[in-house]
Specification:
With about 425 residues, the protein is an alpha+beta fold. The protein is built from 15 helices and 11 strands. The protein has 2 domains: about 170 residues, 2-Layer Sandwich (Beta Polymerase, domain 2), CATH 3.30.460; about 180 residues, Poly(a)-polymerase, middle domain (Orthogonal Bundle). Strands 1, 2, 3, 4, 5, 6, 7, 8, 9, 10 and 11 form an 11-stranded mixed β-sheet that branches.
Length: about 425
């Protein structure tokens, strides 16, 4: 008699079966884009090709969704000589502050960045600053260079016909979008000019001791330079997005189902919650942030040893974020990634709650997987429970989420201290919904 493979593992096997092909498609598409960017550098040495983005293929293989990937184009300049002038401190939860990149009057070596195509002379007569490097101008010259490089590569048969489409370059925004063929699929890339420089980020300093990651990995990753990327026509913002794939990779070095749980939820999100990618909804970036928080809240190896339990670690965090309408950025918890995202969070909550209650319906990918579903896991009062962190941040803690895991029958922890803390938290919260809590 054949060994029966649990439904969760059937679903994971289906995802993994496509991972190698997705990684190959990404590699082919990335090679095409690198070829074009190499010619951009030949035309204008101020723009560098960054070959160090090797973790993008790793991320792409984890995904089922087709959200755009970032391709960073580094600017060749002495970043420490620039003046970083904060323009506007963002309101709480509204995201990062914005900056102007000023060129000092005594800025030796910055002459190539003081030409009219990327530079604007300061009209305020500052004693220290003679003008600014303008994102809008940098994007415009980079777009012109990309068009020229694509035309050259096509005419010289360096890239094959149909390998790359520049039609989307007409779109306005803080990046340039290209569609690149990777074989069987077309991959969307956001080409982003980036300035790397040392910049103190207090939020990162607090995050480097977070549990749940390999010892020393956060310290090494977060010691890297920050990135300044276009925020608007005239201003730049700090971005730590390039650090997140490294955090994922660190989690992948641990035993357990950290990355498998992310892959499963991304597939469910793409196929079920976003109707095959046709509807707006959560992105891979949102789910990646949920995993990072879950890894911190559930640092024990036993939390990730069993596949279904690992997925539920992400689900309880995601449900809480949707219920409270706040998904904190992992490295900047004061930024809410759900704010101004243009999503119907109530509808999204209902879809995620339905999956959490009866996941088996969404996990069936073959006729042989049909069968009776277990009864719903969610009873009355759960949404009221999920609202607690909005009123008291102390609920954003392992014991609170352990209560949720216990309600969904996936706690499975033997540690007596964890059990005691969970029971104490349960006593604190059970009056909310009477007997149903």
């Amino acid at each position: 008699m054949a060994v029966q493979v649990p439904l969760w593992h059937h679903y994971l096997q289906a995802i993994r079966s496509r991972g190698a092909n997705r990684a190959q498609d990404h590699q082919r598409a990335e090679n095409v884009l690198f070829t074009v960017l190499e010619h951009v550098h030949t035309l204008d040495p101020r723009f560098l090709v960054d070959y160090s983005q090797g973790l993008e293929a790793f991320q792409f293989a984890l995904r089922s969704s087709e959200d755009p990937l970032d391709m960073e184009v580094l600017l060749w300049l002495d970043t420490e000589a620039l003046l970083l002038e904060e323009v506007e401190a963002a309101e709480a939860g509204n995201g990062p502050p914005t900056f102007c990149l000023g060129v000092p009057r005594e800025g030796a070596g910055l002459e190539r960045w003081m030409s009219d195509d990327v530079f604007s002379v300061s009209s305020e007569g500052s004693a220290n600053c003679c003008g600014h490097i303008v994102p809008r101008k940098v994007l415009r010259i980079l777009k012109d260079l990309l068009v020229a490089a694509i035309v050259h590569c096509k005419h010289q048969s360096i890239i094959s016909p149909g390998a790359l489409s520049a039609d989307s370059l007409r779109e306005e925004g803080p990046h340039l979008r290209l569609l690149v063929s990777g074989g069987w699929r077309t991959i969307r890339f956001n080409v982003v000019p980036v300035v790397r420089r040392k910049h103190r980020l207090p939020a990162l300093e607090g995050a480097q001791w977070a549990p749940g990651f390999p010892e020393g990995s956060l310290r090494r990753i977060l010691s890297q330079e920050a990135a300044l990327v276009p925020a608007s026509a005239h201003h730049w913002r700090i971005s730590t997005d390039h650090l997140l794939p490294r955090l994922l990779s660190a989690l992948g070095s641990l035993p357990g189902h950290h990355l498998d749980s992310l892959s499963i939820l991304d597939r469910v999100n793409h196929e079920r919650w976003r109707d095959g990618g046709q509807s707006p909804g959560l992105t891979f970036g949102h789910l990646k942030t949920v995993l990072l928080w879950a890894s911190t809240l559930f640092p024990g190896p036993e939390d990730w040893a069993e596949l279904q339990g690992a997925v539920y670690r992400l689900l309880v965090v995601l449900l809480c974020c949707l219920a409270t309408k706040n998904l904190p950025h992992f490295l900047h918890p004061e930024w809410n990634l759900l704010q101004d995202a243009g999503l119907d969070l109530n509808v999204l909550y209902q879809r995620v709650e339905h999956f959490t209650s009866q996941p088996e319906v969404s996990l069936r990918i073959h006729v042989t997987h049909l069968g009776r579903s277990p009864p719903p896991r969610i009873d009355n009062g759960v949404k009221a429970l999920l609202q607690l962190p909005a009123s008291d941040p102390s609920y954003w803690a392992t014991a609170f989420f352990d209560v949720l895991l216990d309600k969904f029958q996936v706690f499975n922890i033997q540690d007596t201290d964890r059990i005691s803390a969970m029971q104490s938290m349960f006593q604190k919260t059970k009056t909310l919904g009477g007997e149903d809590s």
